[in-house]
Amino acid sequence: MVVVIVMVMIMMVIVVVMVVVIVSLLIVVMMVMVMVVLVMVVLVEMVLVMVVEVMMVNMMVVVRL
Hints:
- Keywords: Membrane, Transmembrane, Transmembrane helix.
- This protein is mainly α.
- The chain has a domain at about 30-65.
- The chain has one helix and no strands.
- It is rod-shaped and about 95 Å long.
- The relative contact order is 0.05.
């Protein structure tokens, strides 16, 4: 019986460790995804700002002409 109890304890510990590792990996993956999304959004906003500035300059030139 003691051997069975020890085996069960070891199995439980292994399962808990697996779950913790999987959850930590998921959290890391989520963080990386969030960072990538933030970087993409910042890049898109920068590109949009550049385009808007170019269009504004073009409009000013057209208005002056």
